[in-house]
Structures are given as structure tokens and as C-alpha cells.
Amino acid sequence: MVRGRFITLEGGEGVGKSTQIRALSAALTARGVAVVATREPGGSAGAEAIRALLMEGSDDRWDARSEALLFAAARADHVARTIRPALERGAWVLCDRFVDSSRAYQGGGGGITDADLLALHGFGSLGLLPDHTFLLAVSAREAERRLAVRDAAGADRMGSKPADYQARLAARFAEMAAAEPERWRVIDADAPAEAVTAAIMAELEAWL
Ligand SMILES: Nc1ncnc2c1ncn2[C@@H]1O[C@H](COP(=O)(O)OP(=O)(O)OP(=O)(O)O)[C@@H](O)[C@H]1O
Ligand SMILES: Cc1cn([C@H]2C[C@H](O)[C@@H](COP(=O)(O)O)O2)c(=O)[nH]c1=O
Q1: Which residues line ligand 1 (CB under 6 A)?
Q2: Does residue 199 lie within any of the structural domains?
Q3: What's the mean pLDDT in 70-84?
Q4: Within a domain: residue 24?
């Protein structure tokens, strides 16, 4: 079976993932690569409907277990309807967040065990993992500056989690990147957007 590449961008709030997905899509398309750019939660009709349930309403709308199940259900639909078909066509899938966001947010932030989250992922998405994951790391000061711009009109449900939740999830991202260095690359995302794109493209060069 011909298989494309599955690349994910991860990190905390407002670290520049969507900016990079757009720039990388353009750079890879210019190199003749068939690209599917997508995001989580979302990326298929069913998953976008679940996204609205997750992103709207008050912080206590879902408890940690219900929230983990909803993210896993959205991911199962996204994988089955968008990601696997694209990979089977030989496309490169660039995804803004994937299962590692559940491991950081619902795990590190929300206290669900990694084993439970991976079991949900094994059932829902048959355990699909990215070939390569880029962690966009920003300093606390830069994160604060970017979030002030993003949330000037108010944060969504996930973006309004308390500071200790944000600190736990950042620590969990760093832990996962250190534990699986063959899949993860940590990118200095305090740098200007063009420099971040160049750093990621340099890592992807080997596959082009
Ligand atoms: N390298 C960069 N340097 C300075 N500002 C940046 C950089 N990358 C993105 N930004 C700005 O930071 C803000 C957040 O960027 P973006 O929406 O790409 O982040 P994100 O990680 O996708 O956010 P979210 O968590 O909301 O999905 C935007 O205002 C964007 O223009
Ligand atoms: C996939 C996934 C996402 N989240 C959180 C992370 C963000 O707060 C939102 C998504 O918003 P974005 O602006 O599109 O990045 O959802 C999560 O908690 N768990 C997940 O699995």
C-alpha cells in the first residue's frame, strides 16, 4: 500500500500551529507534494460537530472522562474519514493537534492516565500515530503576549482552563517529546514565523 506522511504540530495555546500549518502547506505544495491540512478537534463533518460541544459552554460542562471520550470520538471519525483515506492516496497529512494533545490536556491537565487515553485511541482510531511530531515551544512571556491578542474578545471553553492546568499540560508535552525523540522535534517557536517554518522544513527535507 502506498502511504503518505502523517505530520502533527503540537503545543499549548496560541503557539503558532495554524500559522505554521498554512506556511508548511504552501511550501510543500510548491515542492509538488499533495498536502491535506487538517485540525483537531475537527477535520471531518462529525468531528466538527463534536468540536462545537467541546469548545462552547462553561469549563464544567464536561467532566474529565466525558471530555476525553468526546475528543477520542471526534478523532475516530477524523481518522476514518479524512486522515487514513488521505494517507492511502499518498498525500502528506499536516494536522494541527492529534492524540498527543489528549495526552497533554486530558492527561497532564485533566488527570486521566496515559494508559486510559492510549486505550481509547487504540479502540477509536486503531492506534494510528504520526510519523513526525513538532512541538512548538514558546516562552511564558511570548505565550502571554500572543494569547492577549487571540483572546482579546474572550477565550473559548478549552482556552479558559486555569493557569495550573496550562502549566501541567506544558510539562506533559515536554515529557512526551523527551520520551520519544525519534518521533518528536522541539522547535523554538519564539522565533519569527518564517524562521519556524524554515526549521520545520529542514527536518522534513529528508523525505522530499
Ligand atoms: N512565530 C510567531 N511570531 C509572532 N507571532 C506569531 C508567530 N506565530 C503565530 N503568531 C501569532 O500568534 C497568534 C496565534 O497564532 P496561531 O493562531 O497560529 O496559533 P495556534 O497555535 O494555532 O493557536 P490556537 O491554540 O488558538 O489553535 C496569532 O496572532 C499569530 O499571528
Ligand atoms: C485535539 C485536542 C485539543 N484539545 C484542546 C486544545 C485547545 O485548547 C482546543 C483546540 O483549540 P485550537 O484553537 O483549535 O487549538 O482543544 C484538547 O484538550 N484535547 C485534544 O485532544
Answers
A1: 13-19, 146, 149-150, 189, 192-193, 196
A2: yes
A3: 98
A4: yes
Report the C-alpha gap between 180 and 201 in whole angstroms.
Answer: 20
Ligand 2 proximity of 134 Cβ (cutoff 6 Å): no
Q: Looking at the CA of residue 161, tell me the nearest atom of ligand 2.
A: 8
pLDDT, the chain, mean: 94
Q: Does the pLDDT at position 122 exceed 70?
A: yes
Ligand 2: which of 17, 62, 105, 118 to mutate, most ligand atoms within 8 Å of CB? Answer: 105
Ligand index nearest the alpha carbon of residue 142: 1
| Residue span of the structural domain in which 78 resides | 6-207
Q: Quick check: 147 pLDDT over 70?
A: yes
Q: Which three cell numbers stand for residue 48?
A: 466538527
d(CA 83, CA 144): 32
The verdict on residue 1 lying in a domain is: no
Complete DSSP assignment for 152-196? TT---TGGGS-HHHHHHHHHHHHHHHHH-TTTEEEEETTS-HHHH
Region 196-207: mean pLDDT is 95
| CATH code assigned at 33 | 3.40.50.300
Cβ-contact 54, 97 below 8 angstroms = no
What is the reported pLDDT for 1? 54
**Of all atoms in ligand 1, which is nearest to the CA of residue 13?**
25
Judge if ipTM > 0.95.
yes
Examine residue 194 and state whether it is found in any structural domain, yes or no. yes
Number of domains comprising the chain: 1
